[in-house]
Design brief:
Layout (H helix, E strand, L loop, with lengths): L1 E5 L4 H12 L3 E6 L7 E4 L8 H10 L4 E4 L12 H19 L3 E5 L14 H14 L4 E7 L2 E2 L4 H11 L2 E5 L5 E2 L2 E2 H13 L6 E5 L5 E2 H11 L6 E5 L1 H11 L9 H8 L9 H5 L6 H7 L14 H24 L6 H7 L4 H24 L3 H21 L2 H4 L8 H16 L28
Parallel strand pairs: 1-2, 1-4, 2-3, 4-5, 5-6, 6-11, 7-10, 8-13
Antiparallel strand pairs: 9-12
Length: 453
């Protein structure tokens, strides 16, 4: 079968090309940049092309089936939702009808036309426009609507892996939004099954993983796949998340936006999962999928310290906290701590109370650094260093201007705490011994083999 795959250089398109070629099909890759392998067709949906022109190209390449995998999550002047998701694909679909193409598979998005009462996002609205036109044409049309797609070259997966690797993981609200991630290899396999289906494949197919999980559970799975240990989970008000998404749209990234936040809020799970039928078996769980193709972070924050170096840094940091507590308690006047507290507004009995509190806090931080290091301890130390430094700099600016840098040196202390924090977060607790269980029965193989089991 001769198949045109549009968006062949993207995450989904690349997987579809490999799946089809593995099954013996002839594939023409359509992308902005021509491929060095096999037949290729340079194109860009941002450049209008008439249905008649598309028909001529499809006939010239003897195309039987068209697969459209083109999609963006953030629009710009160089790539708008209207052109990339609606107008460009519609030109292609109408050209396919003129060329007598047997089948068209459109990779759309989960959430299209799910809630008629809710105002759809510009992203979903543009996807739905192309879906509606395709279903109204006289061609065997299959609309594929996947949940979150992860796997090699997935930009969203790289973002989730990066978020999961942070020592403090921000959650939208409580992180209880439902998602149903599907591996890109199994998405490609499902598309291949639709292409090879005898008879009509017309319809809408929602595809997802084996179960719906929460956003927090998804990030926890990514963190385990990265072999990272304990982290701090920080529920964040949705107002702040939307503000962050708005600001992120100005950054050089193509995943985090107000539209993607809206998609996450409304839930990204199937109402009726077609993946088991198309695959001939249950889809792979996120845990197993990430084990087969480990996630890659956009920024690697993993830190591993040799035991001796870890002990040395902790000893030096603990000595600093304990010494600060001891010298303040032993020589409160000569050390200048009471004068500094007075300048910060703590005088008389309030000054002595603040002195006692700071000494207890510093001594406790020092002892715990030696005996019970944890990510929460290092997080508290970061807050303490920043708080002490900011208060002193505001009330005693000469400490910042001093050529010996008594406050500037706190930057080095903060850096040491951050390194120890990241190293502690990378330590995975020993798992309990596994209980021997009989091997599960082999799952039925999908058509012509599987890319992922």
């Amino acid at each position: 079968m001769n198949v045109l795959v549009c968006g062949a250089s993207g995450c989904v398109g690349r997987a579809v090309v490999r799946a089809l070629r593995a099954r013996g099909h002839r594939v023409v890759e359509a992308a902005r940049r021509a491929s060095r392998e096999g037949s290729s067709l340079p194109f860009d949906f941002m450049e209008p092309r008439s249905p008649e022109a598309w028909a001529g190209l499809l006939v010239a390449h003897r195309i039987d089936t068209v697969v459209n995998c083109v999609g963006i999550l953030i629009e710009s002047q160089r790539a708008t939702f209207a052109r990339i998701h609606a107008e460009g694909p519609i030109e292609l679909f109408r050209g396919a009808v003129l060329a007598g193409v047997d089948r068209v598979v459109q990779v759309s998005a989960l959430g299209v036309a799910v809630d008629a009462d809710a105002e759809p996002s510009p992203y979903l609205r543009s996807k739905q426009a192309a879906d509606d036109v395709l279903l109204g044409l006289g061609v065997d049309a299959a609309i594929v609507r996947p949940s979150l797609v992860y796997g090699p070259a997935s930009q969203s997966a790289a973002l989730f892996a990066t978020l999961a690797s942070l020592p403090v993981i921000g959650l939208p609200g409580r992180g209880d939004q439902r998602v149903q991630p599907i591996h890109v290899f199994e998405l490609a396999e499902s598309i291949a099954a639709l292409i090879e289906r005898s008879g009509s494949a017309r319809g809408v197919y929602e595809l997802g993983g084996p179960e719906s999980i929460t956003y927090r559970e998804m990030l926890a799975a990514y963190r385990r796949a990265l072999h990272l240990g304990e982290a701090l989970w920080a529920p964040t008000p949705m107002t702040l998340m939307h503000l962050g998404a708005f600001l992120a749209e100005a950054l050089p990234q193509r995943v985090f936006s107000r539209d993607t936040m809206r998609l996450l809020e409304r839930g990204n799970h199937t109402s009726r999962n077609a993946a088991p039928v198309l695959l001939g078996r249950a889809p792979t769980s996120l845990h197993d999928g990430l084990a087969v193709t480990p996630p890659k972070t956009a920024i690697d924050l993993r830190v591993t310290l040799a035991p001796l170096l870890d002990a040395g840094l902790r000893g030096a940091l603990a000595a600093l906290w304990i010494y600060t507590a001891a010298i303040s308690a032993w020589l409160p006047e000569r050390s200048g701590v009471l004068d500094l507290l007075a300048r910060c507004g703590f005088t008389g009995s309030a000054g002595w109370a603040a002195l006692v509190a700071s000494c207890v806090l510093n001594a406790t931080l020092g002892m715990l650094t030696l005996l019970r290091p944890s990510v929460r301890l290092y997080a508290l130390q970061c807050v303490a260093v920043v708080g002490y430094t900011a208060m002193a700099a505001w009330n005693a600016p000469e400490l910042t201007l001093d050529h010996c840098g008594p406050l500037v040196k706190n930057l080095a202390v903060l850096g040491c705490v951050l390194v120890l924090w990241l190293a502690q977060a990378a330590k995975v607790r020993a798992a309990p011994a596994a209980v021997a269980r009989p091997a599960p029965a082999a799952a039925p193989a999908g058509p012509r083999g599987l890319f992922l089991r």
